[in-house]
Structure formats: C-alpha cells, structure tokens
Amino acid sequence: MPDTKQRSVWQFDGHVAVLRAGCLSASIDPTHPDNGIHGVRVDKQAPVSAKLLGVRLEPDATNAAAQDSDRLNVRETYVRGVDLVAAYPQTPGAIAAAQIYWRAIVPDGGSPACGVEMIASIQTSLLESHPTFTSVTEIDAVAVLRLDAATSDHFSPLALVDGEPVRCAPDGGPGAYLLRLPGSSFSYVEMIYPGDFLGTTVAATWPSSKDEKQEEAQRRFTLTSTLFPERLEKGVIRRGRLAGIFVPCDGDEQAAARFYRQWIASPPPLTA
User: Fold this and answer.
1) Fewer CB near the last or first residue (10 Å), C or N of the chain?
2) What residue ranges define each of the domains in the chain, with the CATH number in brackets?
3) Residue 8: pLDDT above 80?
4) How many CA atoms lie within 13 A of 86 on its CB side?
5) Maximum alpha-carbon separation in the chain
C-alpha cells in the first residue's frame, strides 16, 4: 500500500484544508463536504475539472438545527499526520452524529498512486434510526470503465447514454471505476470497500454544444454511491471506506487493479 505514515500534508487556509501530498494538490471545506475534494492538480498539470467524493448526509441525519444554514455544523476539525478529521454532532432533533477522515495516500516504491481515502463513521443516541451517507463524484472524462473482478487486471467500458444513469450492482463486479481524463497523463480511479459496496449509479452528460468532434470528447460523469442503508441502533458505530486515486495513464488498468487488491486486503483503518 502507498505510504500513509508521513508528516502532515494538510494545511488550513481559513476553514478550507489544503492538501499537498506527492504529486497531488487539492482542497476540501469540511463545512461544505458536499462540494467534495476540489481544486485538484496532479503532477502540476492543468486542473482536473472535478468534485471528488462529495458527502451528502441525509436530511436530518446530523444537522437538523442547521438546515437553513449554508454550512454544516462541525463540532471540530483537526489534522493528525496524513489525516484531516471533521466531527459532525448529533444536534437536537437530528438522528445521528458523523465523523469523516480524509486520509492522504502518498506514492511509495510499490505504487505510483496518489489520492485520498475517505473513512466515514455514523453513530446515534436513538434506540433506532435510518441515517444514510452518500458519496457523489463529478468529473470530466472521456471514458469510464469498471473492474471485471477483484482477481482481474481488466476494466470494461460502461455503455452510457446521455441522461440515462446506469446502476452498477455488487453482483456485477467490484465497486472500482477507472475514468480517463482529457488532456492528462493520469487516470482517476474510485473504489468502495467490498463490505460497504451496495451499488453505484453512474451517469454521463454531454456538453450542450456537442458536435461531431465531441462524439469522442469529454463528458461530465457523476458517480453516486450510498452507504449505511440498514437501521442503526444506539451505541453502534457504523463505518465505511471509499478511495479516490490518480495513476499514470500508461498501464492504468493494471496499476488500479493492483492498488484495489492491496487496499481491500489492508487492515481496517484506525480512527479515534
């Protein structure tokens, strides 16, 4: 696995946390987790048009008292090593408290991948509740592919029609997707830990001014994955893992598949 035992790679600029780790630079605003990881640059190339791993907490999940506010109610944010941590309290009338770790993935000798692992936890003080946690990625790309099997190095293209989403269920393969970026020497890979993978909806939108040259040009892809659909009992902590990484285009399928296998075999993350 890429190295995560490094000095702090996060710095705060006001309420926005700025990441500089290996070849990756990006930003995240913990008070607006729905905006995802943005301002992404890889290896000092042109900015990636994307919002990665945006977080949507079901209405009333953690911030019922703050629904009229633009920002989520955050109890605390802090940096510890490669981790950016935000805790969202269970406010009066809400059904759960949440904690999110954004963990930087730094390249090492065994993998060229750089990116962020997101570890989300939900806990409730209610006897029973049904909170949900949804991750949404929006990114410009020329193609999206899905890993055939955990033991395979091959990704198959998803056949998408403008405006018609495709549902990728667990029985059709792993929750691992490779997106090839326009004008970049890197590809983006998003993955959901198998035990947390309930399915992903993938949609594509063509540019409004599409012409013949744009038939093979970039589209705006949206990947939506939901965690925690089951009921949650008092005192139980439910945790889910996702990751978004960048790998070089040359050999991207092999690199992505290798990282996925290493990632799912790694020990459960330690969180406070």
Assistant:
1) C
2) 10-265 (2.70.98.10)
3) no
4) 21
5) 57
- Whose structure tokens read 């590809």? 187
Q: How far is CA 18 from CA 15, 222, 247, in A?
A: 10, 24, 21
Give phi and psi for 249, each to the nearest 5.
-60, -40
Nearest partner of 108 among 270, 226, 264, 259, judged by Cα? 259
Structure tokens at 70: 């633009």
User: For 212-270, what is each residue's pLDDT tens digit?
Assistant: 454 456 899 999 998 876 666 676 677 789 999 999 999 999 999 999 999 999 886 66
What would the DSSP string read from start to end of the chain? --B--SS--EEEETTEEEEEETTEEEEE-TT-GGG-BEEEEETT-SPB-EEEEEEEEPTTSS-GGGTTSSS---SEEEEETTEEEEEE---TT-S-EEEEEEEEEB-BTTB--EEEEEEEEEE-SSSEE---EEEEEEEEESEEEEES-TT---EEE---BTTB-EEE-GGGS-SEEEEEPTT-SEEEEEEE-GGG---EEEEEE--TT--GGGTTS-EEEEEEEEE--S-EETT-EEEEEEEEEEEESTTHHHHHHHHHHHHHHSPPPP--
Strand 155-157 relative to strand 232-233, pairing = unpaired
